[in-house]
């Protein structure tokens, strides 16, 4: 049931029934709602929801008139997607949402056990992606990379060092960031690498990056998200027309 404020929306409500697959966690799709746009970081969260193999509802909303509406500001005062509403509680920030889902659905093993040595890598690469890599890619694309003293103060530092850190992460990936366990850290790190290399070319591709991404982009949960996004992309105006200013 939509509230009065919600009724002003033309957004598309789509229920994803992962329960058609086997071994699905039993979740009422109406209690797990992702607000997204197919040209956004919401695609990463959708991929993660598919990895969790749960039923959920996706509300596709347009940038500006819908993301900046009073209703959506009541969900995320930044007026940004993605946002997840689960059992009436709100989680925003792509990496926070993916981490929350990994923790909420433990049987999907998308987070290392609490006594696993890989918990170090898990948190390291999750937070590197959220706080450092995200900012670095956007700064590179908008020619606003910090230099001098500002580089020392900003979480980005120097862009060349960011590239070295990515190589460090990938050289120790066996084949995933947490050894042979595919986790939410791979969902977010791989999403940002795909965005930085294939979509915007902020970072040059390499065999190291390609070898890491190759098995990941063949995962059914990723392919399911991509076919959904390809189906709906043309119905939504991208945030910016410039190919270098996309944010998906
Ligand atoms: N730090 C946020 C960033 C979210 C974000 O910037 N979303 C973009 C789309 S990818 C957005 O909604 N932009 C529209 C706007 O700010 O008006 C996250 O990681 O989720």
Automatic annotation (TrEMBL):
Domain GST N-terminal: 29-109
Record-linked SUPFAM superfamilies: GST C-terminal domain-like (SSF47616), Thioredoxin-like (SSF52833)
Stored Pfam families: GST_N (PF02798)
Annotated CDD domains: GST_N_GTT1_like (cd03046)
PANTHER family with a match to the protein in the record: GLUTATHIONE S-TRANSFERASE FAMILY PROTEIN, GLUTATHIONE S-TRANSFERASE-RELATED
Protein name per Swiss-Prot or TrEMBL: Glutathione S-transferase family protein
Taxonomic source organism: Thorsellia kenyensis
Taxonomy of the source species: Bacteria, Pseudomonadati, Pseudomonadota, Gammaproteobacteria, Enterobacterales
């Amino acid at each position: 049931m939509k509230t009065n404020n919600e009724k002003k929306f033309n957004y598309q409500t789509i229920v994803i029934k992962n329960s058609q697959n086997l071994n699905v966690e039993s979740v009422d799709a109406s209690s797990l709602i992702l607000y997204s746009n197919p040209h956004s970081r919401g695609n990463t969260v959708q991929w993660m929801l598919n990895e969790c193999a749960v039923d959920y509802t996706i509300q596709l909303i347009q940038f500006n008139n819908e993301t900046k509406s009073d209703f959506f500001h009541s969900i995320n005062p930044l007026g940004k997607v993605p946002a997840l509403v689960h059992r009436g509680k709100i989680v925003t920030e792509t990496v926070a949402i993916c981490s929350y889902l990994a923790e909420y659905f433990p049987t999907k093993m998308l987070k290392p056990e609490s006594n696993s040595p890989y918990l170090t890598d898990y948190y390291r690469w999750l937070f590197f992606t959220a706080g450092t890599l995200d900012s670095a890619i956007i700064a590179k694309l908008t020619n606003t990379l910090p230099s001098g003293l500002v580089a020392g103060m900003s979480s980005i530092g120097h862009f060349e060092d960011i590239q070295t850190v990515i190589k460090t992460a990938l050289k120790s990936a066996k084949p995933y960031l947490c050894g042979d366990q595919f986790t939410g850290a791979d969902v977010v790190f791989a999403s940002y690498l795909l965005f930085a290399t294939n979509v915007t070319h902020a970072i040059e591709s390499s065999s190291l990056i390609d070898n890491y991404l190759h098995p990941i982009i063949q995962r059914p949960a990723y392919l399911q998200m991509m076919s959904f996004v390809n189906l709906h992309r043309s119905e939504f105006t991208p945030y910016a027309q410039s190919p270098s200013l996309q944010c998906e």
